[in-house]
Amino acid sequence: MSAPTLYQPYAHFVKQANLRGLEDYQAISQWAQENSADFWAFQANRLLSWQRPFATALNDSQAPFFKWFEEGQLNASFNCLDRHVLAGRGGKTALIFEADNGQVKKLTYTQLLAKTCQIANALKQLGVEKGDRVIIYLSVSIEAIASMLACARIGAIHSVIFGGFSTTSVYDRIVDMQAKLIITADVQMRGGKPTKLKAIVDEALLLGPCPSVKHVLTVERTSDTTSYQAGRDVTFKEWVEPQKDQCDPVWVDSEHPLFLLYTSGSTGKPKGIQHATAGYLLHAALTTDWTFDYKPSDIIWTTADIGWITGHTYALYGPLCLGSTQMIFEGIPTYPHSGRFWEIIQRHKVSVFYTAPTAIRSLIKLNESNLDEHPKNYDLSSLRLIACAGEPINPAAWEWFYQHVGGGRCPLLDTFWQTETGGQVLTPLPGVTPLVAGSCTLPFPGIDACVVDETGAEVPHGVAGLLVIKKPWPALARTIWGDAERYKNSYFPDNLGGTYYLAGDGAVRDPATGYFTITGRIDDVLNVSGHRMGTMEVESALVSCTDWVAEAAVVGRPDETTGEAICAFVVLKGARPEPQEAERIAKLLRDHVGKMIGPIAKPKDIRFGDNLPKTRSGKIMRRLLRSIAREEPITQDISTLENPAILQQFQTLRT
Ligand code: PRX
Prior knowledge:
Shape: globular
Helix content: 25-40%
Number of strands: 30
Structural class: alpha/beta
Oligomer: single chain
Bound molecules: adenosine-5'-monophosphate-propyl ester
Strand content: 15-25%
């Protein structure tokens, strides 16, 4: 496909973003809006290496199940590795890994390709074939990244599970995706504390029948006694290290699933979001190129765990597809001290720093109370761009990040996106979009975002409504694994016409600038420290504690550090506990939720009552619970409430 001529003049300005302004952005966005398929086709040819060219950009004949770049064939690992090596850039550093204990290891593109090939050969030998699902239950590490690329190399579908998820979550995902193989490690280290990942996998495999799992492949980091089951369990040492470091990539169709990533929705069951190889990779590369105004000399550090979409798109696929150097870090921002992030930026000369508002908020508190660990004590002059994602950033945190980390000279980009969108969809472009604290500004070119009411009609600027994306874009998730119906109903609801992508967030646009501000989720999804968590998921975990819990309801409340905090309202099987007993039971319940989902899901507040506030028809009145959780006076109409006395109980007994 030939390049659309109108686009050409603008290829220059985005690369030279600091020189040109909003007018150019508007021109390219308008062009992309009117010629959407051509815009993406042009970018796909510019940024990806194709084994077989695609014939059409978009096939929307079965909307909302869109297909992009049909008849094209490619391989994501080839795009992220081989082509840079073939172009003579194999000696460039691909990954700089810093372990929790400070040890540093660097890998060039040639070395990362070799490692990827070795793992790919091991997977093949262990019976993994194109289309098989492979779970990667590893923390941020060279092995995690090489394993993801190894899956992509042989056409297997990877699904990374965040190392903070526990046994039941791992088991549920194994069963849902019918995983064939699990890659894990004996331990992961975070904040000086080991988590025995392999032991969690062992336990998960005992929770119920998992006949799909043929092997567990373990990275051995310690000589600790990890139990191995003969026939099933194998190690990197035995199976990966002896392998050849070459492995031909398997060319896959554009639409071939690259990965599944489970995320929370409004029902109790996390959903396996499925991304397609070409469309996802393209958006990852294009947004890295433009939003980060990529330069070959960059050292990009996306601090997100590899178990989240931000880790996938901006610590791996986007930057590696462009041939950049990535900083990756195993640990946490506060260990061994709260200057750790700044120390890493200084030590490795990070130029693009992409993190989460929650990390910034917690560091403000710690750094301001211990000035030795304050960013001003570190040389952060290598930074040229800073960015955040995952949750709203409040203006005070924005300002601190901008002034103290960015030195008042680096653009600070508040980027909005989701697991389902594959990459950034609302974001400033550096030097192009005037920045406003608290706003993710404008859509990325090619993203047709707007704010509508419940009928799908666009609302005027200044009026809050639902955030939708009107036209498909290549990185839109293709489906929910095994549940196409749920995909259609959740994201393309009939009341909006059935073709608009419903993000699940509310938004409002500024009357003067058209800038978007996200007002928060419109469903029962909470955002705790940037982690998505369904209230139903936590409720299900609580009521599964059948010895104690009769009923539970969960809502969110604002929290200064974590953004939102989980508040649980619990009715016990026995009598309502006295305060001391309440403390003990609350701890037990928190531990139970931690074991069922993971520590991030532990409710911050637990309140006990004899019953939940319900209407006479038995519906839980969550808006009342929200008011109690926020410690606001109850001003709502409670005339339909069956049992008003219990409001008082919940208001008083909190642990
Ligand atoms: O509520 C929005 C919030 O995070 C959700 C998506 O979470 P997840 O699928 O984990 O993807 C994270 C990728 C960054 C959204 O529905 N969110 C994400 N970015 C922002 C945000 N809320 C406000 N401002 C943002 N910049």
